[in-house]
Specification:
single chain; 356 residues; alpha/beta; Rossmann fold; 2 domains; 8-stranded mixed beta sheet; 3-stranded antiparallel beta sheet; binds S-adenosylmethionine; Three-Cys-motif partner protein TcmP; Tcm_partner
Length: 356
């Protein structure tokens, strides 16, 4: 499944980064499911366990990781437990699996209540939130998780449910909960379908960032031409946003899945156009000395849909070739080859039309 491929690729990048610095990591699967499906696909809890167990970095395999699987359906939970026992008869001691046969809201409120009561911080955590519908993921709870400066949220949102609820009075409280306010009501003055969608997604991103998340990445998953769902990722570090975008790029397109940067965006990752990246960099940095390190933070953040491994080859090089990029004379000898850009080299981008 597309969302699993992104998850796997992201965890591969995330685990070693945090393993370098922290005593314990927490991976939460708030809507864990049964762990496997009739079509032979494995579920998100198994993806997460495998990502850690099979990681090529020893530091990750040695890391203390708590996996917290929450599932409200008893049968699915039993299935998941049996599957984990069968698949991993002897998990390493540093990998601890905890289960909660409860609702996501209930289990997380209890965990966070305990942590807050002790005046402690939740361990650095990655929380996967993959509900059916939109009623069980209150924004207030997401904000509580994100109070931890090292928490990240990966949440799928089914637009069809939002859309279905919009016209119905009795469902208003669900949307208030989902967005953490009644600001979504403003959508009622928008008649164009795709503008409505764009507005609601923009609002959701904004709300995610109202707590401590500094970056919110949103992408859409299509199967053929059918929109399957939207995923939002909220993080407090630009590096997290960067790695998530790299994960999306690395697996898209994959089979018949296509990812798009936003709801109305025609941008197709399969045949990328880097002109928007060139324009964004030049708008942000034109006419002053900057380093590739500074540009990487901008590109990696949620202000672009690109990731930081792309901009040297696809933006700086074409800019220099067209005479729109110069290297600081004092840094010229830091360069051993043409069109290469060390992270600390000073360079200047010249606005379009101003180069000679
Ligand atoms: C979309 S599925 C999750 C799939 C799973 N993340 C995966 O990728 O394999 C949603 C799951 O959440 C469970 N569920 C529904 N409401 C829940 C709630 N309020 N709290 C926790 N689990 C819930 C359902 O029983 C179902 O197994």
């Amino acid at each position: 499944m597309g969302k699993h491929l992104v998850l796997k690729s992201y965890l591969n990048a995330w685990l070693p980064i945090l393993s370098r610095w922290h005593g314990r990591l927490l991976i939460i699967d708030g809507f864990a499911g049964p762990g496997e499906y009739n079509n032979g696909h494995v579920g998100s809890p198994i993806i997460a366990l495998d990502a850690a167990l099979q990681h090529r970095h020893q530091a990750v395999r040695d890391q203390e990781i708590v996996f917290y699987f929450v599932e409200s359906n008893k049968k699915r939970m039993e299935h998941l437990k049996a599957l984990v026992d069968e698949k991993y008869p002897s998990l390493p001691k540093n990998f601890i699996v905890r289960y909660a046969s409860a609702t996501f809201d209930g289990a997380m409120s209890e965990l966070l209540g305990y942590v807050e009561e002790q005046n402690r911080q939740l361990a650095p955590c990655f929380a996967m939130i993959d509900p059916f519908g939109v009623s069980d993921t209150p924004m207030s709870l997401i904000h509580r998780i994100l109070k931890n400066p090292k928490a990240e949220i990966y949440i799928s949102v089914m637009y069809e449910f939002i859309n279905r609820f919009l016209g119905s009075r009795e469902f208003r409280p669900h949307l208030d909960n989902l967005f953490g306010s009644n600001d979504w009501c403003r959508v009622q003055s928008i008649s164009d379908r795709s503008e409505r969608k764009e507005f609601l997604y923009g609002l959701y991103k904004e709300k995610l960032k109202e707590s401590r998340a500094t970056n919110a990445v949103h992408f859409e998953l299509y199967k053929g031409y059918r929109h399957v769902y939207s995923i939002f990722f909220a993080t407090q570090s630009w590096v997290g946003a960067d790695k998530m975008k790299a994960a999306i790029w690395s697996i898209a397109p994959s089979g018949d899945f296509v990812f798009r940067g936003s709801a109305n965006d025609e941008f197709d990752i399969a045949s990328p156009d880097f002109n928007p990246l060139i324009n964004a960099i030049s708008e942000e940095f034109a006419n002053r000395w900057v380093t590739p390190k500074q540009i990487a933070q901008f590109v990696g953040s949620d202000r672009t849909i690109y990731h930081s491994s792309q901009f040297k080859k696809n933006a700086l090089k074409p800019l220099e070739k067209s005479g729109r990029l110069i290297i600081h004379p004092d840094d010229a000898d830091k360069r051993t080859r043409r069109f290469t850009y060390r992270d600390d080299i000073r360079l200047r981008i010249i606005e379009e039309g101003q180069n000679t």
